[in-house]
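quick one, 420 residues, struct below
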Amino acid sequence: MEKLILFLTLFFALSCSQRAGQNEANDKNNLPESQFSEFGIPALDFDIKEGRIESGHFFSNLMEDLGASNADIYSLTQESKGIFDLKKLRVGNNYRAFYTKDENSKLAYLIYKDSKTTTVVFGLHDSIFVKAYNKKGATRTRVGEATITESLYYDVERAGLSVKLAARLADIYAWSIDFFGLQKGDSFKVLYDEIQYEGDEPEIGEVYAAFFVHQGKVYDAYRYYDQRDTGSVQYFNAKGENLKKAFLKAPLSFTRVSSGFTYARKHPITRIVRPHTGVDYAAPKGTPVMSIGDGTVISKGWAGGGGNTIKIKHNATYTTGYMHLSAFAKGLKKGSHVHQGQVIGNVGSTGMSTGPHLDFRVWKNNTPINPLKMESPPAKEIGKSQMEAFRNQIKVVKFQTDSVMSVQYLDTLLLKLGKR
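---
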């Protein structure tokens, strides 16, 4: 059995090396064009104007603003069919307009960056055309791990990992782990794909599994496609329990608890000892505040010492409150239905407050409870008919994790020996 495991490990390591070599070969076949040329356009022959898509920009009025004729705009609209949906111009995305270097200075090309991987080129110079270029990335499966000394973000960076991985972990464990309560010595290991696009920071692809040790307890998470819910990919522990819960653990990300739930706190302004039946999260002004669950806004407005406040009724049992906000989300009003994770406002210091923070409160059957100790029922679990397939997937993921770690260890050893 040991020989079989060793063979499979070496086979997997060899496969990873071959895939890396293939990716390198693919990269060489897809090298970017000369710095003097962009997508076949001789950049030095044109004047270039950079800009970004503004609110209210449609393709037609954007092109009109850039100097294109109505005839050319119509032709480009026809040429784009089946290549790029012109209705999907995204506010904030960048573009580069190329103009001829002559007295007339006519618009010759428009390069629009739709995403990190997709760029669309509109040609008006020698001929009318629309082309979409999809940039290929080199993907590698790797294991990231770190031990907490200060915070998730800090220690992820200290371990040489992308902070984007920290955000993904926070999403996966949003219902299970209170990231404001991480302790020194907590740790994690995660199996994921890293996608490297030339000239860009690596992107985080699929996260296959994660193992987070918090306060001595291991929280395992396995990515699984739930066949009962078409298109739904969720995370479950080894028991088949869904990590997603009815409520998020916290209404905002990566801050600190500055004051806890107590019935005897000296108020920082009045200096009077009185109950503080909520949790204060210290955070910079403007930090987005999210509803911890689906529900209906039952009040929104000024609440005296609480400043700008929103209260949300989630069901017959639970209600939550968000106080001292600097602003409310646009369009939010009494009676609005909100979804879990929806931004409802921003951290502020309105009302009786000594600095920007969120005073977060939870009521169960109209009685205040400690938000940090609130239990939340899980979403639906994996069905009995899928458990065997799920358990087999867990075995594969665990083997893959060990194999990737072996490859990474070998690479590190070779680097130390100067072999790579």
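The first strand starts at residue 37 and ends at 38.
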